[in-house]
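Practice problem: predict the structure.
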Amino acid sequence: MSSDLLRVRFQLRLDDRLARVVDACEAFETIELDNAIYAGNGQWFEYLTLVASTADASPESSLSALQTVEVVDSRTAGTDPPIHHAVLFADEGDDFVLSTITRGRAVPHRVLFDGDRLRAAVTLRDWNHLKEFADTLETTYDGFELLGTTQVDTVGFLLGGDRLKETVRGKLTRDQLAALEAAYRMGYFQVPQEATGTDVAERLETSQSAVSERLRRAEQRLFEVLFGPVE
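Answer:
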């Protein structure tokens, strides 16, 4: 791949097998595929991050009834919200979306299960590559929808290549994460600044002082992750 790469976001409707997994994990607000290793015969080792909506949720209890999924290992990385990292051994069959992405020579960055949708971000070579890739997804899966494209200069981290995300999620509260994400997406950290603290507060429907405190506390925790002592 060279310059003028395309970062592409899209979504698909979950197939029956993935829908069963997501339904079994109803105690989790979000499920993200952070990494996967092919084990042959349509089976994969998968590393997931699951954000729980209840304190007693666990990947083992949620997925125990599914014969196609085995929880190999799991651990908790935070309590507010409860975040679980789990390693699964899963029978994905022949149409696993990650197989289709890599066979299409797309670089995967993010795969997120969101309700009845699978949302993903990949990098492609150019517009012709996007057309070929989109045609394949439309043929293979239901409900394909292109969500957005951005021209980029570099490929960036592959799926599972950036472990900082995992560490940070375990250190920040739900409110701190929400404030950081809103501020980032609105351009609060851009130079020149595209949004003020008041703008972010209005988006989050809270006070400017509350947003300011959340951002300062989040920044402090980020600095602790980067520069603090090794635990």
